[in-house]
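Sequence design from tokenized structure. All designs in this work follow the same two-part layout: the structure record, then the generated sequence. An example of the structure record is given first.
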């Protein structure tokens, strides 16, 4: 399976089956992704290989040890080795192909954003120009 950042400068490959995913809802992951949760998995170092762009990766690390690696061109989070282990953290959104893994763990739900809720009344949209119109109406932007 292949993966790449938004601009395509950082590319990687994973060999073997992809493990199931987790979503982390902590405030650090929300800030790093700009979303409600970080969806990712871990693979063993021997199953991971960089294809290009390692020279484009910038790292940020908090004194607590929290680390975020990202593409210096587009800002996408990119894989990094989990400190002190033989595991590589893989952001699920970078994976290029469909896969059968599922989210089977939600972490730090106690610190999830209060606005993160799934509601039966929530508008669900597909893609295309008509979706943008529906989104604007649902958000009362029109």
């Amino acid at each position: 399976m292949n993966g790449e950042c938004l601009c395509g400068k950082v590319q990687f490959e994973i060999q073997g089956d992809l493990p199931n995913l987790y979503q982390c809802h902590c405030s650090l992951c929300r800030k790093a992704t700009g979303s409600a949760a970080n969806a990712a998995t871990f693979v063993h170092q021997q199953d991971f290989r960089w294809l290009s762009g390692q020279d484009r990766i910038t790292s940020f690390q908090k004194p607590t040890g929290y680390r975020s690696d990202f593409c210096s061109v587009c800002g996408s989070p990119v894989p990094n080795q989990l400190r002190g282990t033989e595991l590589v953290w893989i952001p699920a959104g970078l994976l290029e192909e469909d896969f059968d893994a599922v989210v089977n763990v939600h972490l730090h739900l106690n610190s999830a954003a209060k606005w993160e809720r799934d509601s039966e009344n929530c508008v669900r949209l597909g893609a295309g120009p008509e979706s943008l119109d529906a989104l604007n109406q649902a958000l009362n932007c029109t």
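The chain has one domain: 2-117. We note this feature because it recurs in several other targets discussed in the main text.
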